[in-house]
Amino acid sequence: MDFLRISNVHHTYFTKKSAVTALYDISIEVEEGEFVSLLGPSGCGKTTLLSIIAGLLQPTEGTVKLEGKPVSAAENDIGYMLQQDYLFPWKTIEQNIQLGLKLNKRLNEETKQYTLNLLKKMGLQNVEHQYPKQLSGGMRQRAALVRTLSTEPKLLMLDEPFSALDYQTKLNLEDLVFETLKQFRKTAILVTHDIGEAIAMSDRIFLLSARPGKLYKTFLVPEELRKLPPFQARNNHKVFQELFQMIWKELKSLETETVP
Q1: Distance CA 64, CA 68 (A)
Q2: Which residues have CB under 8 Å from 221's CB, separation 6+?
Q3: How many CA atoms lie within 13 A of 210 on its CB side?
Q4: Residue 2: what pLDDT?
Q5: Chunked mean pLDDT (size 10), the chain, 260 residues
Q6: Which of 24, 89, 204, 252 makes a 20 to 30 Å CA pair with 147?
Q7: Hey, which residues does 10 pair with through a beta bridge?
Q8: Which fold has domain 1-74+156-163+186-260?
């Protein structure tokens, strides 16, 4: 049984005057512990698909199952990390990272200590009593990752989580997220516009066509890149650049297509 199975997903947005199809017949299977990325032209439905997988949006047609259960019944097994950290400015970092546990009524001394240990693993020692405004953007995103991991989700949804950061912080955080997810054997789906980021972090890359979004091509990242942290993978110039150019050409062809 596949860990995550997306079967024949269609989605259309309806208004009083129009109907716009965002996704058409998407079928994807993801194995446990796999890191996959969604790439495609702007407006191809990547975030819509992520929302459907997370159970935040009901597809017009099709099903999404996590370990054989509809995702609507597995909401506590899915964590979401967004472009903005969305930490509450009036709460301390400790209160922010423990919010999910509190909402799920799982906050106790053991789980509190677990979140504080996660902070240390993220290099955020002694910040638990500080407020978000006292931390840099990269530190806040690390705290947001701790908040996401604190409830021990089985599947992580990453919606362009590094795009608002400066390039050096982005590279450092890519490595940190990659190593953390490998250590905890988490399954992750990344939405990104950055081809290099997708290659550096992923096992497989799904390229969606322009609206309506369809699964256009799947790229398997070579093993010699998959076993490397993202920064090192980017420096494996020959293999990395070959795959980058291949995906770039396909993406450019999709972006210049005339949609009827």
Answers
A1: 9
A2: 199, 202, 203, 204, 205, 243
A3: 11
A4: 77
A5: 90 87 94 94 89 91 92 77 88 93 89 91 90 93 91 91 86 89 91 94 95 92 92 88 95 70
A6: 204
A7: 61
A8: Rossmann fold (3.40.50)
